[in-house]
What we know:
- The protein is mainly beta.
- Helix content is 13%, strand content 51%.
- It has five helices and 22 strands.
- Strands 17-16-20-21-22-19-18 form a seven-stranded antiparallel β-sheet. A five-stranded mixed β-sheet has the order 2-8-7-4-5, with helices on one face. Strands 9-15-14-11-12 form a five-stranded mixed β-sheet.
- The longest helix is centred in the middle third of the chain and has 12 residues, at 181-192.
- The model has no long low-confidence stretch (mean pLDDT 90).
Amino acid sequence: MALTLNTSIDGKKFYSCDFPDLSISTNYGLANVNIVVNGSTALSTRYYAVSGRVTVRNLVPLVELSMEQQGKSFCTVGITISVANETVSASCQVLLCKLKCMTVDVDTFLADSFLTTHNHRLTTLYNQEVLPFYIAGSGNYSVGTFFFTLNVRKADGSYDSYEYISGRRFAFGIVTSTISVKELQWVCENHFGNGTQLLSFTLKFSSRLIHYYVIPCASAQEFRFKNIFGCMESLGIPGATISKLESDFSEAMVDGRLQHYDVKHTRTFEVQTAQLLSGYMTWLEQFLTSSSIMRKLPDGMFADVLIKEYSFEQTDAPGEENTLSFTWQFADGKQSTQRYSIHTGIFTEQYNQIFA
């Protein structure tokens, strides 16, 4: 055969960050290369050979960009090499992964793990935790069971645990399930009585396992962001937020009066987190550098936001603190964290009865 694809690709699975270079042998002095990602052409071009060889390098950005544009986390990549009347084809499956951090093969990761790099995480009672994972198979839907182990402190101060089972229905492929922490708190109170506090819980689904530790706090900001696998994850941040309003404008004298024009108001929000573990900080890198970030509004809807700037310093020294501060802004510049209400709530709780 005068045309050969020397790179071993056909039938394999790759993380996108490990997608290999193409090595081609040809007696024709050239080769036409066509790369199709999930049925969409990502590259179609001609290369001229040097000493009968063509090497196509640095395909990782091309594959990842095409997958992100199509909103795909796991898909088929087809490669066709042609010249004259000869054609060589190969295909593989690619899992989007934008960092070289994986230590297991794709098959093992998809079967045994949720699509996240952080399986011991903090949460709050106000969070709707979003968990992405892969379900192999075909058809309309599959049925699975979530096994929760809920660890609580009861009203009398003693500690206990409770096994809770939740049946769920899933599609096939990359799917997402939502877990309400407040609902799990209600399950605990229903079983142990009022005054029970949910401290932590473990979720087991098939061979997948993830742990959550519930932070007691009066309120929290909930964000959602695309992680390195192109899947949405949730992040609840207990911390102080400072709202800032800045205005930029030009001035002109009109009819003896000074007026402003080209007025632009910018609203930003500065968040300072509490102390964080080093592993949690590593995971937050994906949040700060994500291509898509949303914040939950008081009415339960989500709005696109941008991270304007951040201060990120991480240490793994024993006993040292890790904290994160960042500034975010609504992407449309019009959204507000406030919602209009006829209930002003201007008085603190102890005066409500007097001034209601």
